[in-house]
Design brief:
8 helices; alpha/beta; 7-stranded mixed β-sheet; 11 strands; homodimer; DNA-binding; 17% strand
Chain lengths: 267, 267
DNA sequence: GCGACTTTGTGCATTCATTCACAAATGGCT
DNA sequence: AGCCATTTGTGAATGAATGCACAAAGTCGC
């Protein structure tokens, strides 16, 4: 999924550290885990909630006040049952026979995703991609202010990019701690990524988005999401190849059941 | 993330060829599909194979000739059982007691992913991100030559970027068809994405990577993979929030029960 | 050629995710 | 008030992905 997606798009593992809040109830009588942190929302659902949120924001701008699960699902490219289940994880905010109120859903999803408070972002590696990210107008929606930029190149240090001066990567730990960076974005060449990652972690960053094509090694309490163009292309390549193969096979009299080889909701 | 898969072939994962292993087929129901190669390989595994491939390439460059599933798994950030299962989908190329030969795995994974032939890529939207993509040295590994660039801006049309002149988006269908583009990369502002997507499809493109924060509507035979920074950030935000919440909640055993307005929990 | 040791490949149990399908609500109409 | 047409919310069924644990298959030393 990636993964997302998911990636799934991206694909993530490592649910989180074990210990901590896990109250392992050996013999749950009849009552379900009562005070336990209410149902964890499935990882896959969280990713989709972010998508619903964007679609809903667009709806709001168009002045749409209410919609049904069917409509929202179509706009988000998922089926309506899945959408309703996803929404049910965050509570029960619909009206039977009517649908959902856009503004209510927006508020609730924002609350669940923790978007009610802002998360400072640091971008490391101010090359082509880094530039693109630094200038990403107000950064994806608001709520994620770019509060630091880093690069190795001494000529870049001090130069403002998108209104923020670039610092040297050696200062990552110090600057991140000072500015309370909560998310680090790695946009460096692969060779530098792990070192940069280590410095971010040293600076107290617990969440990282990695654009560099390398597998980062991080301590358990740090969460990494990778965005990897090469992988995306190769996945597409795989499907192209498979499609071609199955056609050849088909032509050789092996009429496999089902007509089109393609699946459903490609979104 | 999740892209469509459709393949509904002969379920059972028959080892196929060698040693005619006991056919655990108690009931002789529907005819099996003796497909040559296309063994259904799980979507999630495909994504990881691409990662293994990259790690293996690195290994090869370092002169490593052989390694165990344990070693490769560690380098790829997955557990070894999963890695072995993933590899088993593409065949049986390891040697028990020894491990895998790097070059063999590289070849086999490339074959499965369809990397033995090249796939021409078109990048649409030559802004910051588009520039970054167009210059992405030889594009992710080889095998994905950038064969076309597009933008709306008349001032950009004709200008070479990364050695390739930019064409106008109105020419997408024509140019894509001519140059046999097989993968389209959308790096435009969200408002333009759907129109661009439609043109790509009109040009015969069946695979698309979408960097624009919109849900694309495409016909069934087109596969879209989305790369969405905003979603990634929001997923991280969710986990940060949840982490913080679970700490607070523990201290105050507040009823999660209630109607639906429980403060922190989720649900 | 034999036994000790290593590592693969996979059946099975488990967990996570998707989809179905229907009772429970709700608004509108008569 | 009562009925009808809608649409939600969710148990239960189905399907996909993960991880365990172990037999099978191989190497190495003697």
């Amino acid at each position: 999924m990636a993964a997302a997606r998911g990636q799934r798009g991206g694909e993530r593992d490592v649910p989180a550290a074990p210990g901590a809040t896990e109250v392992t109830m050996p013999i749950p009588p009849v009552a379900e885990t009562p005070m336990q942190r209410a149902r964890a929302i499935p990882e896959a659902a969280v990713a989709r909630l972010a998508v619903y949120l964007r679609v809903l924001s667009g709806m709001a701008e168009q002045g749409i006040g209410t919609l049904s699960s069917e409509e929202l699902a179509a706009a988000a490219g998922v089926n309506s049952a899945k959408l309703r289940k996803d929404l049910s994880y965050i509570g029960s905010y619909g009206t039977r026979g009517v649908g959902y109120e856009v503004s209510v859903l927006v508020d609730q999803i924002e609350r669940i995703l923790g978007l009610t408070r802002s998360h400072s972002v640091a971008v490391v590696g101010i090359g082509n991609l880094g530039h693109a990210l630094a200038n990403y107008g107000g950064f994806p929606s608001r709520g994620f202010p770019v509060a630091a930029l880093f690069d190795v190149d001494p000529d870049l240090v001090g130069v403002p990019v998108g209104g923020m001066p670039v610092s040297h990567i050696d200062d990552i730990p110090k600057v991140c701690a000072e500015r309370e960076i909560s998310i680090g974005v790695i946009a460096t060449p692969p060779a530098a990524a792990q070192a940069v990652c280590d410095r971010l972690v040293a600076g107290g960053v617990h969440s990282i988005v990695n654009f560099a094509p390398v597998v980062l090694q991080v301590p358990d309490h740090v969460e990494v999401r990778k965005v990897d163009l090469a992988v995306e292309l190769q996945i597409l390549s795989f499907h192209v190849a498979r499609r071609a193969d199955s056609m050849n096979v088909n032509s050789s009299a092996l009429a496999v059941n089902g007509s089109s080889v393609d699946g459903l909701g490609v979104r």
